[in-house]
Amino acid sequence: MEYGQERIATLHDLTGHVPDAPTERAAVVVPMTDREYAGLAAERVLSELESVAPAEVVVPLRAPADTVPEFAAWLSEFDLPLTVLWCNGPEVRDLLARHGLNGEAGKGRDAWLALGVAAANREYVVVHDADAETYEAADVSRLLAPLATGYQFTKGYYARVESGRLYGRLCRLFYAPLVRALADAHPDAAVLDYLGAFRYALAGEFGLTADLARSLRVERHWGLEVGQLGETFAHAGFDGTAQVDLGRYEHDHRAVSGPTGLSDMSRHVGRALLRAVEEGGVAPDYESLPERYRESARGFVEQYAADAAFNGLDYDRAAEREQVDTYAEAIRPPGEDRRLPPWREVDLTADEVLAASRADVADVRTGD
After folding, report:
1. Is 155 exposed, middle or buried (CB count within 10 Å of its CB: 0-12, 13-18, 19+)?
2. Does the pTM exceed 0.90?
3. Structural domain count of the chain
4. What is the mean pLDDT of residues 256-280?
C-alpha cells in the first residue's frame, strides 16, 4: 500500500471507504458491442449498477442489425433507467452524414454519441468498459466523488495482474515508454508531464463534468482514451484532474496481431498520443523517435521482469521485447485530424440522436 502523489491529484483506496457521490445527478455510459451480449462480465457490470441508482445508464451499442432486438431485450431485464443508442443504425448514420459527422465508426464515435446524450440532462458523466470481470459498484462513487468537490476530470487506475502474469501490455510496453522517450527529449514540456502522471493512461474508466464532456474533441476509434487526455490537459489541466485507485481489474485479453489486436490498437493510440503531444507544443523528431522508444521500452521490460520475479509471477522477456518491436512500427506522424468536434460546437442535438436510434431499433424489431 502506498500514498504517493503525482503532478495530478492521486486518490488512493487506503481503507476501503466508499465516498459519498452525487449518483442521482449522474449518467453512467457503458459502451458495448455484440461481443458483450449476455456475457458474464457485462452481466456483472449491469447487475452492480442496479445498486448504484444513477439517474441514467446510457449504452452506446455497435452491433449487427439481426442481434439488436435480442440485445435490447436482454438489457431491458436489468432494473436500470436505461437508454440504448444503436450507434451504427441506418437512421443514426444518415443523421450524422447530414451533419458531416459520419465518417469512421469505432469505440470513440460510440462514446462521443453517448457523451452528448448523457451530458444533455445530467450534471456528471461516468464512463467505463463492460468487460471487467472484477467490476464493483463502488467504482462509480469513486470516479464521481472528486467531481463534486471541484475536479473536472477523474481517471481510474488499477493493477492488471491475473493468472500469474502481468497484463496491461499496451499501456506499459507502448504508451509509458513512448511518453518517457518523448519527455527525455523535451524535459520542459508540460503536456508530457501531464501524460506521464497517469498510472493507467489507457484505462476506459473515467468521470467528467457535463460541461467538460460537451467541450472535448473525441478520437473516433481506439485512440479515445489517450486523445481524451490531450483534451483534458487543455481544458482541465493539472489542477482540474484527479486519478482514482480502483484496485485490481481483470479484463478480456486481446491478441497482439489481428484486426482488433494490440498491434492495430497501437496505431490508433500512437496517432492520438502524438497528436496530443504536438498540440501541446512538442515537435517530435520522428526519424529518431522509434529507436529512442525501443531503448526506453527495453528499460521498462527489465523493470517489469524484476517486479514479476519479486512477486512470483511468470514473465517472458522475449515475448515482451517482440511486442516492443511491433509497437515501434506505430510511431509515425499523426496524419489527418479526423476527430469528432465538441458537442457544444455542432448543429446536432441529443434528442435528434435518440430519436434516430429509437426509430432504428423499432424498425429491426418489426422487420421493416
Report:
1. buried
2. yes
3. 1
4. 87
The residue behind cell 514540456 is: 189
Q: Which of 65, 10, 63, 17 is nearest to 38 (CA)?
A: 63
Angle (CA) 254 193 190, round 5°:
130
Asked whether 333 and 286 are in contact (CB, 8 A), the reply is yes
Check: CB of residue 12 under 8 Å from CB of residue 243: no
Give the residue from 226, 248, 333 showing the smallest Cα distance to 285.
333
Spatial neighbors of 157 by CB under 8 A, at least 6 apart, are 198, 199, 200, 203, 243, 244, 245, 246
96 vs 73: CA distance, rounded Å: 26
CB of 142 closer than 8 Å to CB of 5: no
With respect to residue 234, please indicate whether it lies within any of the assigned structural domains.
yes
* Of the candidates 258, 50, 230, 234, the residue with the CA atom closest to the CA atom of residue 137: 50
Q: How many angstroms separate the CA atoms of 349 and 346, rounded?
A: 8
Name the amino acid, one letter, at 143. L
pLDDT > 70 fraction of the chain, expressed in percent and rounded: 97
- The answer as to whether 343 is a domain residue is yes
Please, which pLDDT band fits residue 368 given cuts at 50, 70 and 90? Answer: low
Residue 254: pLDDT band with limits 50, 70, 90: low
Residue labelled with grid coordinates 452506446: 60
16-71 per-position pLDDT tens digit: 999 999 999 999 999 999 989 988 999 999 999 999 999 999 999 999 999 999 99
What's the rounded Cα separation, in Å, for the pair 175 and 331?
Answer: 11
Structural domain includes residue 3: no
CA-to-CA distance for 103 and 298, rounded, in angstroms? 37
Q: Residue 120 belongs to a domain with what CATH number?
A: 3.90.550.10
Q: Does some domain include residue 190?
A: yes
- The length of the chain in residues reads 368
Question: Helix (H, G, I), strand (E, B), or coil: what is residue 31?
Answer: coil
What is the residue range of 70's domain?
Answer: 9-366
In the chain, % of residues over pLDDT 90 = 88
